[in-house]
Design goal:
The protein is mainly alpha-helical. The chain has six helices and two strands. A two-stranded antiparallel sheet has the order 1-2. A hairpin with a 2-residue loop joins β1 and β2. α2 runs antiparallel to α3.
Length: about 190
């Protein structure tokens, strides 16, 4: 942090923070005009919409060509494509020392997906839980999503939430656990 020095008559010791910052090799980020930022935001949103359309169309074609359920493509290719902006934003925020922005981005994106995207999707076209994949439990066929997908999502929420509430921070170990869960879950989906 830069500290202001009181002006001293006849010396250069009274330089302001900006000049001192330049002499120390520290650059202040230049502010962009708001109009430029709004235009970039709109262009980015349009490109995301076009990309999402291409992702869905081609994801469906890839699933058909490989003979795998669309849910597998959704879990891998589509999920990666839709999550890359959050991943890049989170990493960039952390590198720049803005941990709160990274956490807010992750929580906001997940809340947005769970509440708004799910809500709008269901209102526009109610759908049933995919039943092409079932699991035999006690001699009864149960939809796999009810015994695997949803419990995995709840487990991930607990792994993130409980330690954060108790300790007030997230640990590297939690990150490793989440990565292991993702790769194991994906492998299970691909194998099934």
């Amino acid at each position: 942090a830069l500290k202001a020095m009181p002006p001293v008559a006849g010396t250069g010791a009274g330089k302001n923070n900006e000049e001192k910052g330049k002499s120390d090799g520290i650059k202040k980020e230049e502010e962009e005009p708001i109009q430029k930022l709004v235009i970039l935001l709109i262009v980015g949103a349009v490109l995301i919409a076009v990309g999402a359309d291409l992702l869905v169309d081609n994801g469906t074609l890839i699933a058909a060509a490989l003979g795998v359920p669309e849910s597998v493509i959704a879990l891998t290719i589509v999920a990666l494509g839709t999550s890359l902006p959050e991943l890049v934003t989170a990493i960039t925020s952390l590198i720049k020392g803005h941990g709160a922005l990274s956490l807010g981005n992750i929580c906001g994106a997940n809340l947005f997906n769970l509440v708004l995207v799910s809500g709008v999707s269901i209102v526009l076209g109610p759908f049933s839980i995919p039943s092409e994949k079932t699991v035999n439990i006690g001699g009864k066929e149960v939809i796999a999503s009810l015994v695997l997908d949803i419990p995995v999502m709840l487990t991930v929420m607990l792994i993130l939430t409980v330690p954060a509430l108790i300790r007030g921070k997230l640990s590297r170990a939690q990150g490793y656990i989440l990565l292991i869960i993702y790769f194991a879950f994906t492998a299970f989906q691909l194998a099934g």
